[in-house]
Amino acid sequence: MRWPGVISRRLTWVWAFSFSESGCHYVGFFFLQFWHNSGMQMRMIIGFISIFAIIAGEVVHAGEAPQGDQVYLSPEAYVEQAFEHDTPSQEMLWPDTALRAELKQVLGHSPSLRFRYWGGEGKTVWILDEVGKDRPITAGVTIDHGKIEDIKVLVFRESRGWEIKHNFFTRQFANLWLKADQQLSEPVDNITGATLSVNAMTRMARAALLMHQYTPHAGTTLADAR
User: Fold this and answer.
1) 107/118 Cα distance (integer angstroms)
2) Which DSSP helix (H) or strand (E) runs through 15?
3) How crowded is residue 102: how many other Cβ atoms within 10 Å of its Cβ?
4) Which pLDDT does position 42 carry in this prediction?
5) From the centroid of its chain, how far is CA 118?
6) Helix (H, G, I), strand (E, B) or coil at 139
């Protein structure tokens, strides 16, 4: 193509691709290639590629869910915070036949043979794992005198549903207790697109409340918790 005036130029497109679970994202850009000056040509190419590679990276990654294991807080750190760094010794709860039956009803599957927890002065802290869709979510749950004091996502491994880590979701559990039908005392709002993760967190909260009653640290009855 001859441009009016003087020199020959060519219009070139360069595409930057990035693939994710939600599909193919791309950013396109172009530059004018000047044939009459090779030095200027190379500087322009390098400059345009550098600038648009940065832009492409920002566009591709903006708003995407985290990939791989996302460790927000270690279990050890969560336990230390719950007891204000005066951490008691770890204990084990071995559910008997009756408790195993109740846990199966709460979790929707057979429970583990044992559960680790830390307890003292009416408080118990649990580190639990529950599958959302495909992989386990690790959460820390603190029960104080039969009510939920705190719940946090410690490690998230799923490809979707990571929004449950935020305080706007977890604060709904504060001061909830377990009713006679093993449901929480108040409903927990769902998050669109994260239903399975929400359900997993709710199951862990209910399981922790239930198991708390079977420890020597409970210090209260279900009626008192209400």
Assistant:
1) 21
2) strand 9-20
3) 19
4) 56
5) 23
6) strand
pTM of this structure: 0.69
**Reduced to 3 DSSP states, what percent helix, strand and coil does the chain have, rounded to the nearest 5?**
35, 30, 35
**Which of 147, 142, 145, 148 shows the shortest CA–CA distance to 117?**
142
Place of tokens 């009510």: 147
The label of the residue with tokens 């994260």 reads 194
Where does the chain have alpha helices with state H? 38-61, 75-82, 97-107, 167-170, 195-212, 222-225
Q: No. of H helices and E strands in the chain? A: 6, 8
- The whole-angstrom distance between residue 151's C-alpha and the CA centroid of its chain comes to 13
Q: Is 136 helix (H, G, I), strand (E, B) or coil?
A: strand
pLDDT for the residue numbered 98: 97
CA distances from 69 to 34, 73, 78, 87, 97 (A): 47, 12, 17, 26, 34
Among residues 53, 76, 220, the alpha carbon closest in space to that of 147 is found at 220
Predicted pLDDT of residue 66: 52
DSSP lists the bridge partners of residue 8 as 2
Give the chain's end-to-end CA distance (angstroms, integer): 82
d(CA 114, CA 4): 82
Q: In this structure, what token pair is assigned to residue 171?
A: 């604060």
What does the CA dihedral 67, 68, 70, 74 come to, rounded to 10 degrees? -170
Domain boundaries, the chain: 9-61, 70-225
Q: How confident is the model over 66-121, as pLDDT tens digits?
A: 557 899 999 999 999 999 989 999 999 999 999 999 999 999 999 999 999 999 99
Tokens of 199: 């359900």
